[in-house]
Design brief:
The chain has about 475 residues and is of the alpha+beta class. It is built from eleven helices and five strands; from the N terminus they run ααααββααααβββααα. The protein has two domains: about 350 residues, Outer membrane efflux proteins (OEP) (Up-down Bundle), CATH 1.20.1600; about 100 residues, no CATH class. Strands 1, 2, 3, 4 and 5 form a five-stranded antiparallel beta sheet that branches. The longest helix is centred in the middle third of the chain and has 68 residues.
Length: about 475
């Protein structure tokens, strides 16, 4: 009677699993490329990288502007009323005695004036080593910004793929933990019944209880990990993902091409974008040294100016009537100016030493990035190689677990196995499937990371991987 009840219960469980699988299969799934397209529009980091690139690009015309002529003009209008006193001195010589005398007279005056003055000036650098080096530095800075943006685009692909497959891994882990909890719950129920009839000691029940409590904790942790993975992807796409497509059973296991590890390392050292950016950074720091050393050199420039002043004025002396006192002045000038720095309190020398130290720091950064690039290239290459072997081994493990489950279910049908045995076998199958799925995700991510290290990662690589999902 009890065996028939167990059989009916197992049949109901199987129907439920079938319905859930049918519903999941019918639901619309989101592909990797759809998530990536959302990320390209909504990710703050890629937007920040684009804005930084656009800002740095403007440094080139700013540096070039210092070489071009500088033309400026100004105009001034003033209206003034002046009340004052003029003092005049006249010298007289007595024709008889020859004595000199001075006659001083004071005259009051009123003057009203309107003055319009305008200036135009032209400055053209003839020789300034610093501004030419600054232009070279600006060109290198723009090149570095473009490389950094390409690196940000590659980094976005990696972040999207990592977030995508982290969610799938978290979902697989949660399913495995739920299957484990169900199996352990049945084991606990069976242990309690056997204890009640005196077949086992209380310690066996306590061990089963401890295992069940641990399974609940593991399931809670798995749910939290899934929520965290979804939140991480949402921070990139600004939306929570729905059901995601998974790699199908016919996932191609492709060996890296070229197949030699050192070939990938050599390619990475020549094309890795982060390494290229660091190399340009060394050149920028070298240009900065030249710019600061130019503080010791003379500068030569051409200067030309024109000024015109037009004054409309009326003046009255000693209370008389107002009479015109207009004036107009025009002045033109052109010349060459040479400036030679003699002493600036040690500022130029200090700036040169500072630039030299930063150049040394940039070279150390280049060495660090080169070593990191080599490490990532080797690690990713080995990850792809070992990933292929791991996927093949776990595929065999899933087949073995599935065969074991079938044997256990057959034993349950004839009464030689219990429900706990069936659930435990199913838990092992879920665990093997989870490990297989995670190994596939790791294999795919290592492919992308290897191409990123080599500087060859493109959107087409994501599109290819997207064809492997269903």
């Amino acid at each position: 009677m009890q065996d028939n009840y167990k059989k009916r219960r197992m049949k109901k469980i199987g129907i439920i699993y079938f319905l859930l699988a049918t519903i999941s299969y019918g639901a619309q799934s989101t592909s990797l490329m759809e998530v990536y397209q959302l990320a390209t529009v909504n990710d703050p980091l890629i937007k920040e990288a684009l804005a930084n690139k656009e800002a740095i690009i403007e440094s080139r015309p700013q540096a070039r502007s210092l070489i071009l002529p500088q033309l400026s003009s100004s105009a001034t209008f003033s209206d003034s009323d002046v009340n004052g006193q003029s003092t005049f001195q006249q010298k007289f010589v007595n024709p008889i005695t020859g004595d000199e005398s001075v006659l001083t007279s004071n005259t009051d005056f009123i003057q009203e004036s309107e003055t319009l003055q305008w200036d135009i000036s032209l400055r053209q650098s003839i020789f300034d080593y610093g501004i030419w080096m600054n232009l070279r530095k600006a060109n290198k800075t723009v090149a570095q910004a473009e490389v950094d943006y390409l690196a940000a685009e590659q980094n976005l692909m990696i972040r999207v793929a990592s977030g995508y497959f982290n969610i799938l891994a978290a979902e697989d882990t949660l399913e495995a933990e739920q299957a484990a909890r169900q199996s352990i719950e049945k084991q606990l129920d069976q242990a309690q019944k056997r204890f009640e009839v005196g077949l086992i000691a209380i310690t066996d029940v306590q061990e089963a209880r401890a295992a069940y409590d641990q399974s609940i904790a593991n399931e809670i942790i798995a749910k939290r990990s899934l929520a965290t993975a979804k939140e991480s992807l949402r921070s990139i796409t600004d939306s929570y993902p729905g059901k995601l497509k998974k790699p199908d059973n016919n996932l191609p296991l492709i060996m890296p091409n070229p197949q030699r590890e050192n070939d990938w390392v050599d390619t990475s050292l020549g094309q890795n974008l982060s390494l290229m950016s660091a190399e340009v950074g060394v050149e920028i720091a070298r240009s900065e040294i030249k710019i600061q050393r130019s503080g010791h050199l003379p500068t030569i420039g051409l200067q030309a100016a024109r000024r015109e002043t037009d004054t409309d004025s009326f003046r009255s002396d000693s209370g008389g009537s107002l009479s015109p006192a207009d004036s107009e002045n025009i002045s033109d000038g052109i010349g060459i100016q040479m400036t030679l720095p003699l002493y600036s309190g040690g500022q130029v020398r200090s700036r040169v030493k500072q630039a030299v130290a930063r150049h040394r720091a940039s070279k150390e950064k280049l060495e660090r990035v080169a070593r990191e690039t080599t490490k990532v290239a080797r690690d990713s290459y080995l990850g792809v190689i070992s990933g292929i072997a791991t996927v093949k081994a776990l595929q065999q493990s899933v087949m073995s677990s599935a065969t074991a489950l079938q044997a256990t279910e057959a034993g349950y049908e004839v009464g030689t196995r219990t429900t706990v045995d069936v659930l435990d076998a199913r838990r092992r199958l879920f665990s093997a499937q989870k490990n297989l799925a995670i190994s596939k995700y790791d294999y795919i991510l290592n492919i992308l990371k290897l191409k990123q290290a080599a500087g060859t990662l493109k959107v087409e690589d994501l599109e290819q991987i997207n064809t492997w999902l269903m």
